[in-house]
Specification:
Elements (H helix, E strand, L loop, with lengths): L3 H22 L9 E2 L9 H6 L1 H12 L2 E6 L2 E6 L5 H6 L5 E2 L1 H12 L7 H12 L2 H20 L12 E4 H18 L5 H26 L5 H17 L2 H5 L6 H12 L4 H16 L2 H14 L1 H15 L21 H14 L4 E5 L4 E4 L5 E4 L4 E4 L1 H6 L28 E2 L2 E2 L17 H18 E5 L26 E6 L4
Parallel strand pairs: 1-2, 3-9
Antiparallel strand pairs: 2-3, 4-6, 5-13, 6-9, 7-8, 10-11, 12-13
The protein binds protoporphyrin IX containing FE.
Protoporphyrin IX containing FE binds next to helix 6, helix 13, helix 14 and helix 18.
Length: 502
């Protein structure tokens, strides 16, 4: 035993030295952005960053300006904070920045999925075929059917649905949209009651995984939590296995198309299940939380609620739902709701906070800023954009940026407003809730349709109110900055009931 102690000690020192030395010796070279390695070797600023990325980056921007390189857990991230300089990064005409490499590492860790080099292109072409145009119409119908099933039950409206129910608004939105979204993408069995129970169980576990997710990505879980994540991953791999899928009706063409592609590439059944898990996550992780913020803002801003209700009545007519009926909906109305469109755009501006990451391919790659200044970047470093801070919260682009203004994206004549300026220059990227460029969310049109459908059903068929109308809008859970839609630090109680039959 005594012999092993020095050997282990030497091994440990070797590992520490291997990890820390490159960081210790790295110095800013001429023409590189300001370098801030933080006080702790290898970790750099990782702890402050993970604790509250938004506040931390604000401090870094105040200290270094619009471009700076940070050491975070052994890697170097160059943050670009000037949105007028985003164009060349997002277009990346010379293919010097790589989205796929980082994404592949992440999905292997989180979902156990070993990505193929063609996946990114395949997912985007499947989505162009099946999540837009005619494919979207089909999915809208399927989503209406699923929302009816989840909100009214398998037999349509029952007499007791006009009673008041109380719930957490976040839980209600996430739970309802998750179950409906999951069923419309992954299909049904013949037994609808059982489908609902299974979807409920799936949501409970999805939520457990979701709560662990930010610390899992940052490798900050305790031993018990690691085991729990492993169990949850196995559960999802099993429940979303292709053999289960084959027993179902109405599996969406989007999912079928992508699985067919994987089969043709020789991907085995176990890996296809992991792919399904990844798609469940991508398709359901943000819709519920975004709809929560939208409904909460409407409940806190009666003038906005009234404008949305008036518009809904105008395009859909008075809501009517008799006993044993499911929701009926005129889908063409989704194209004629500028007020609701503005509400959702404003909600996404306030609530969607992804980080966009690209790995630098070559040494001495040039980063050209709008000011004309050029910086050199090193191979393997990561270029990072955090548009929530640098675009969506910029008071120059969006005056009073923290305030919800339901008509911020409406012109005085009621059409969609697309003209926004920074320092007097018209800005192309004035909100970026879906990311941009090669990695832009391919499900954004479906996401908007689903959220519009849900909000329209809620405001036309239901009475809703906050249990405490004076309850403030909760703060954002700071651990979730950088991971898509933010979540509240705590839930908000509300009441709802189906409007009585007329
Ligand atoms: C409010 C809802 C949603 C928001 C805010 C959202 C946002 C995003 C963001 C920010 C990204 C990553 C961009 C990046 O890494 O640069 C993304 C990726 C993705 N989203 Fe969404 N999304 C939503 C809903 C959906 C839906 C409904 C689907 C599918 C039905 C979907 C499918 C995907 C997929 C497959 C990717 C990965 C794309 C790739 O690998 O290039 N999303 N989404």
């Amino acid at each position: 035993m005594a012999l092993w102690v020095p050997v282990l000690g030497a091994l440990l020192m070797f590992i520490v030295a291997y990890l820390c030395l490159p960081g210790l010796f790295r110095q800013r070279r001429p023409q590189e952005p300001p370098l801030d390695k933080g006080a702790v070797p290898w970790l750099g600023h990782a702890m402050a960053f993970r604790k509250n990325m938004f506040e931390f980056l604000k401090r870094m921007q105040a200290k270094h300006g619009d471009v700076f390189t940070l050491q975070l857990g052994g890697r170097y991230f160059t943050f670009v904070m000037d949105p007028l300089s985003f164009g060349p990064i997002l277009r990346d005409a010379q293919r010097k920045l790589d989205f796929v490499q980082y994404a592949r590492e992440l999905v292997l860790k989180v979902f156990g999925y070993q990505a193929l080099p063609e996946d990114n292109r395949m997912i985007h072409s499947a989505s162009a075929k099946h999540l837009m145009g005619d494919g979207l119409q089909e999915l809208n119908k399927s989503m209406l059917h699923s929302l009816s099933l989840v909100m009214l039950g398998p037999n349509g409206r029952s007499p007791d649905t006009s009673c008041w129910h109380e719930d957490g608004l976040f839980h209600f939105c996430y739970n309802t949209l998750f179950k409906a979204g999951y069923l419309s993408l992954f299909g049904y069995t013949k037994d609808k009651e059982q489908d609902l129970l299974q979807a409920e169980d799936l949501f409970a576990r999805f939520r457990k995984f979701d709560l662990l997710f930010p610390r899992f990505v940052y490798s900050l879980l305790g031993p018990q939590e690691w085991l729990e994540v492993g169990r949850l991953q196995s559960f999802f791999h099993k429940r979303l296995s292709v053999s289960h899928s084959l027993e179902k009706d109405g599996i969406s063409k989007w999912i079928s198309y992508m699985l067919q592609f994987l089969r043709e590439q020789g991907v085995d059944a176990a890996m296809q299940s992991k792919f399904n898990f990844m798609m469940l996550w991508a398709s359901q992780g943000n819709i519920g939380p975004t709809s929560f913020w939208a409904l909460l803002f409407l409940l806190k801003h009666p003038e906005a609620m009234q404008a949305v209700r008036e518009e809904a009545t105008h395009v859909l007519g008075e809501a009517r739902l008799e006993a044993k009926q499911s929701f009926v909906f005129e889908f063409s109305a989704l194209q004629h709701t500028p007020v609701l469109d503005s509400v959702l755009e404003e909600t996404l501006r306030l609530a969607s906070a992804p980080t966009l990451l690209r790995v630098v391919h070559d040494d001495n790659s040039i980063l050209k800023m709008a000011s004309g200044r050029e910086y050199l970047l090193r191979r393997g470093d990561i270029v990072a954009l955090f548009p929530y801070l640098s675009v969506q919260m910029d008071p120059d682009i969006h005056p009073e940026p923290t305030v919800f203004k339901y008509n911020r994206f409406l012109n005085p004549n009621g059409s969609r407003k697309v003209d926004f300026y920074k320092a007097g220059t018209k800005i192309h990227h004035y909100t970026m809730p879906w990311g941009w460029g090669v990695s832009i969310c391919p499900g954004r049109f479906l996401a908007l349709s689903e959220m519009k459908l849900f909000v329209l059903l809620m405001v036309t068929h239901f009475d809703l109110e906050l249990v405490d109308p004076n309850t403030p809008v909760p703060a954002v859970d700071p651990k979730r900055w950088g991971f898509g839609t933010t979540q509240p630090s705590h839930d908000v109680r509300f009441r709802y009931r189906l409007q009585p039959m007329k």
